[in-house]
Amino acid sequence: MMPAKNLVKMVLANTVRSPRHFILSSFGIVIGIGAFVLFLALTQKAGHVLEEVFPLDEVQVVAPRVSLLGKDTSKRLDDSTVKMILARPEVASAVPRMNLAFPAAGRGDFEGSDLKFEVGGFSDGVDASFVQDDERIREQFKDWDAIPSDPKRLACVPPGPDPEDAVRNAPGKPPKNMIRAGNPGGNGANGGDLWGGGSPAPAPTPPPAPPPAPDAGSGSAMGAGSGTGTGPAAGSAPGSGSGSGSGPAAGSGPAAGSGPAAGSGPAAGSGPAAGSGPAAGSGSGPAAGSGPAAGSGPAAGSGSGSAAGSGPAAGSGPAAGSGPAAGSGAGAPPAQPAPPPLVINQYGSIGTGTAEDPLRPAPADPNGKKLNYYNPCPDPDVYYCDDAERICKHRVPVVLSSTVVELYNNQFAKSHGMPMADENLVNFLIQSRGLSAMRFSIGLGNTTIAGTSTVTKKKPRRVEAVVVGVSSRAMQVGVTMPIQYITRWNKEYMGEEAAGAYSSIIVKLRDRTKLAPFGEWLKDPNVGLRLEDNLGERFATVIFVIRLLFLIISIAILVIAIINIGHNFFIQVSERRREIGIMRAVGATEGDVMLIVLGEAALIGIVGGLLGIGLALGIGWAWNTYAATGIPRFPFKPESWFEFKTWIWGSALGFSTLFCILGGYLPARRAAKMEPAQALTQN
Amino acid sequence: MTKSYGVGSAKTQVLRGVNLDVMPGELVALVGQSGSGKSTLLNIIGGLDMPDAGEVEVLGVDTLKAGDAKRARLRNQNIGFVFQAFNLLDHLDVLGNVTIPAAFAKQKKDDTRERGREALRRVGLADFAHRHPSELSGGQKQRVAIARALFGAPGLLLCDEPTGNLDSETGKEVIDFFRELNAKDKVTLVIVTHERRVSSVAQRVIAMRDGMIVETSDSEINAEGAGPA
Ligand SMILES: Nc1ncnc2c1ncn2[C@@H]1O[C@H](COP(=O)(O)OP(=O)(O)OP(=O)(O)O)[C@@H](O)[C@H]1O
Ligand SMILES: [Mg+2]
Questions:
Q1: Which residue of chain A is at minimal alpha-carbon distance from B75?
Q2: Nearest ligand to the C-alpha atom of residue B37
Q3: Which residues have beta carbons under 5 A from ligand 2 (an ion)?
Q4: Nearest by Cα to A673 from A580, A598, A562
Q5: A86-108, pLDDT tens digit by residue?
Q6: Are residues A526 and A655 in the same domain?
Q7: How would you class B108 by CB atoms within 10 Å of its CB: exposed for 0-12, middle for 13-18, buried for 19 or more?
Q8: By the 8 A CB rule, do A459 and A445 touch?
Q9: Is residue A583 located within the same domain as residue A566?
């Protein structure tokens, strides 16, 4: 055999010498390889998007719905089921999920817009250890109520109801403008202003020095609109009750049981505190927890106000005068030196009655019409004052799926002129503005859907949640939180029964080939479970078929190209009979001649392949550029529609070379077998 | 040795029992009518063609048994061909044509171009190294072909009507060159020719008709030439 270097040189020289032959032969290859690369890259991308939407490495086990004579006899999924599944050799892990079994409405604020959404059917609980996407999620996504020692679980006075809130009583009606406190510096909307108890009620007249009401707390808020009745519980009634029922009443006494404290403020006005004032209705109740404390409240007019006395005060009844005082506030040292229960006023300061936090100025509305609700808890991005327990609790941590983000973008963001969110935007917002950007309230037992009624065992109540990130483990459409919350709520609202039944069990198999035996085992009558229809699997099959189809098309093009190459080479070889004869005469073996021809074919394959890849990249780029603006947004619309993986163009180059060598084989063989003598002796 | 082309009724017996010995250093002329089998015999000697039956031994190599690689090596190293049609490669320049055998040489040598120039010098075309064959006259082309044949310093030169496409003046130069090559470098030459002038310089003239050697005559001008063995 001739030396490889000479072979390469000769092949290159021969190729350069006949450009026409080269172009005619490589044309088909360029098209074929271009199609091959483009199709593969497209379906590769499609597969990836699919995996993003439906993780393919896990399956969901559900109980088949069976009802016998109207009675639901479906098998229950409970802890024993999880254990049984975990015992299977095919299974790597099994994680139960539980749905919220009763209606709940969500309301939150995103970048200045008020969003309302149904939470009831769209909440999923899953073990926290299952959701571990990033540092923040690992830190935040857990059952905070299981940590009673949390130092931030302080007693607090929950903010009063939001008179404009319409979620509960007027389903489907869009809320009016948000209550947007006049506090620019502050972290604006805090959860509290989104969700309140009572119906919009005329502001009750501020009660003059409310009588000491020991048990004020109860009753309170959530008065649920109903007329009078409610009111204020415990007599105290500062709330005025006033006809309209608004109940809100204030009741709420201040935390600490202490007095009346009007503080709580109920809605409107109430301003409690002693005498003070009524001031413009507003007032908000500050009342600093503490009792009576004077001062506090009134604020209203004054703006600053506050001061408050807050303090300690405690207990005591009726506040002492302090009052209204404009601004001053301060004054009023608490009348009674009673030992203060540690209480937080609504300005977030604990204990002391000091002036307000400069970052969050006193609630004052120049119009005197709207209320400002302040989150009295420390670290208000993640803590809120729970209405029922009257302590600061960590917000329920929630993760979203990228599907939800996409749904938001497509269904909502555009029509509402809101920013497009992608996973990065969510992360960005959380990072730059803290979790406050992603807080929302959940009205357990409420619904945004008109006419829905599910009998729950309890009256609705409000909890607050915060989105802590986007997780691949989140349920596709809805919110996902640590399962303990769901279990507790289901128990609270639906009873023990509901709290023990999982909605599904997510099973990760040791590998995908184990799916069939595992599915068989599930169907066994003794087990009686089934796999959730796996949409992802079906889509994957569709993509596989499409990819196969595309491959067949590409290969058909390539086969035609190869036949063309073979044909061209046959012509070329007979045109080069004399040349080949000369080479044989000066020492070329049959093998040398064959290698030369095959080398030329391979070169066409390499160059044609590279050009084809270039063509595919070019078309891909052009399409992406066009699609970026020319194609309207749709869920999971990619920035690039193609994924030009190394293996794709690597195999394209390999195939193109291989195919060309195949195409050149017969002509090369003919060239090698040609009688050199004949060609040489012809004149 | 016998050779036939085609099959069945189309079969032509080209060589019918040829028996020939050429001694080292001999200059032999092969004459005969057109179609008598001269070219076929020459190509068989050079291993470019194969007989149907018989034995061929060239420079100690049994070309029938040797196999393609060995025959190619023999042509590359030990045999030079010169054809009537020159058979130059038009896409290469003169030097490229002369050095083309080096592309197929097993052992690499760095002095390829130098040896190519040396071969060109011997045929008097040292200044034409970078011309293209199309720019040369017939005689010059044939001298390039001879230089290529001599590139590997072969012991045997096989020439098929080397002067057939040349005018008589140029043809004479070529013949003179062959004679000098034979005399000085002891290169063995087998020259197929129609021309008396060529056969007259040969030490032995072999005449063929219908695939058989019909006559062998020692040239009258060459007394000391070696006889047939
Ligand atoms: N490849 C071939 N296939 C069939 N017949 C062939 C082939 N090569 C040569 N022949 C026939 O063999 C015979 C001898 O041919 P060859 O070329 O040896 O004659 P030649 O003596 O060299 O004639 P010329 O003087 O015309 O060159 C001729 O009849 C020719 O037609
Ligand atoms: Mg001939």
A1: A587
A2: 1
A3: B 39
A4: A580
A5: 999 888 888 899 988 888 888 87
A6: no
A7: exposed
A8: yes
A9: yes
Outline where B14-83 has alpha helix (H): 38-45, 63-66, 68-77
Q: Ligand 2 centre from A69 Cα, in Å?
A: 105
As a whole number of Å, the CA-based R_g of chain B is 17
Query: Is the domain of A525 the same as that of A673?
Result: no
Higher pLDDT, B89 or A157: B89
Contact flag A592-B104 (C-beta cutoff 8 Å): yes
Report the distance separating Cα B61 and Cα A612, nearest Å.
50
Which residues of chain B lie closer than 8 angstroms to A1, CB-CB? 69
Closest residue in chain B to residue A582, using alpha carbons only: B87
Q: What is the pLDDT of residues A185-209, one digit of tens each?
A: 333 333 333 333 333 333 333 333 3
Return left, alpha or beta for A436; rule: phi > 0 is left, psi -120 to 50 is alpha, else beta. alpha
At residue A436, φ and ψ (nearest 5 deg) are: -60, -25
| Cα(A593) to centroid(ligand 2), Å | 25
- Taking 70 as the threshold, does the pLDDT of residue A290 lie above it? no
The H or E element containing residue A97 is strand A91-99
Domain presence at residue A77: yes
In 3D, which of A12, A32, A18, A5 has the Cα closest to residue A569?
A18
What 8-state DSSP symbol labels residue A77?
B
Please give the angle made by the CA atoms of A624, A625 and A626, to the nearest 5 degrees.
90
Whole-prediction pTM value?
0.62
Q: Which residues of A touch B108 (CB under 8 A)?
A: 3
Residues A523 and A592 in one domain: no
Which chain A residue is nearest to residue B192, measuring alpha carbons? A681
Q: Which two tokens stand for residue B26?
A: 């001999």
SS3 A13: helix
Q: Contacts of residue A577 in chain B, CB cutoff 8 Å?
A: none
Ligand 1 atom nearest B211 alpha carbon: 14
Of A88-92, A321-325, A584-588, A662-666, the range with the lowest mean pLDDT is A321-325
d(CA A440, CA A122): 15
The partner residue sitting opposite B91, judged by closest CB among A6, A17, A588, is A17
How far is it, in rounded angstroms, from Cα A661 to Cα A663?
A: 5
Alpha-carbon radius of gyration of chain A: 37
Whether A2 and B104 lie within 8 Å, measured CB to CB: yes
CA distances B185 to B28, B161, B203, Å, are 16, 21, 16
A530-531 vs A479-482, strand pairing mode: unpaired
Ligand 2 midpoint to CA A681 (Å) = 6
Whether A229 and A316 share a structural domain: yes
Pairing of strands A113-118, A104-110: antiparallel
Take residue A264 and report the two structure tokens written for it: 């709580």
Please name the member of A10, A586, A590 whose beta carbon is closest to the beta carbon of B101: A586
Interface contact B76-A582, CB threshold 8 A:
no
What CA–CA distance (Å, rounded) separates A676 from B75? 13
Structural domains of chain A, count: 3
Amino acid at A226: S
Lowest pLDDT segment from A86-90, A495-499, B43-47: A495-499
Where would I find the beta strands (DSSP E) of chain B?
A: 2-5, 12-16, 27-32, 57-58, 61-62, 79-83, 156-160, 188-192, 204-209, 212-218
- The answer to the question of residue A318 being in a domain is yes
Of A531, A562, A588, the residue that ends a domain is A531
CB atoms within 10 A of CB A642: 24
Residue-number span of the structural domain to which A277 is assigned: 201-376
Under 8 Å CB pairs connecting chains A and B tally to 80
Interval between CA B37 and ligand 1 midpoint (Å): 6
Element (H, E) at A601: helix A590-630
Q: Which of A349, A357, A342, A394 is nearest to A376 (CA)?
A: A349
Q: What is the DSSP string of A448-497?
A: SSTT-----SS--EEEEEEEEEE-TTS-SSSEEEEHHHHHHHHHHHH-HH
Instruction: With beta carbons less than 8 A apart as the criterion, state whether A580 and A650 touch.
Output: no
